[in-house]
Amino acid sequence: MFYFIEEFFKIPMIRKSPLSATLSGIGSGLGQFTLVDNNLPLKVGEIIFGKLYPNVHVWGTGFIENKDWMPFYRRNMEFHAVRGLLTKAKVEKILGHPINAKLGDG
Predict the structure, then answer these.
(1) CB 55 within 8 A of CB 33
(2) Is the dihedral of CA 47, 51, 52, 56 positive or negative?
(3) Which of 26, 44, 82, 103 falls between 20 and 30 A from 57, CA-CA?
(4) What confidence tens digit (pLDDT) does each residue in 53-105 have?
(5) Do the Cβ atoms of 76 and 54 come closer than 8 Å?
(6) Which of these, 50, 43, 89, lies nearest to 70 by C-alpha position?
(7) Percentages helix, strand, coil for the chain, rounded to the nearest 5?
(8) What angle do CA 20, 73, 48 make, to 5 degrees?
(9) Which helix (H) or strand (E) holds 87?
(10) pTM of the model
């Protein structure tokens, strides 16, 4: 993903933690944007960072596990593409509304 964006769009990329990243592309990283359910200090950090950095664009990312995920802590997630129908269904369940995202993994 880094190479693609830097090479074709000429946009310099900087690797960031899911807590402050503005782009999630390719891979199984969507679970990194959901609240943890068993670690209170981390959950508080996620909530704080979710308010400081509310925006993230999702390009072809999915979930690594088939489980019930906690809500997203990032408040403004724009789903341009998700990995497939299962990911789309999980995202819609978490958000409580349909998304208009393309399907595909890079």
Answers:
(1) no
(2) positive
(3) 44
(4) 999 999 989 999 988 999 999 989 999 999 999 999 999 999 999 999 999 87
(5) yes
(6) 43
(7) 35, 20, 45
(8) 65
(9) helix 85-95
(10) 0.85
For residues 54 and 29, what is the distance between their CA atoms, to the nearest angstrom?
17
Q: What six digits make up the tokens of 19? A: 């807590």
Residue with tokens 């308010």: 51
**How far, rounded to the nearest angstrom, does the alpha carbon of residue 54 sit from its chain's CA centroid?**
11
Amino acid letter for position 36: V
Other residues' Cβ atoms within 10 Å of the Cβ of residue 15: 6
Residue 21: how many other CB atoms lie within 10 Å: 19
Q: Mind listing the pLDDT tens digit for each residue in 28-62?
A: 889 999 999 889 999 999 999 999 999 999 998 99
Please tell me the predicted confidence (pLDDT) of residue 52: 95
Tokens for 1? 């993903």
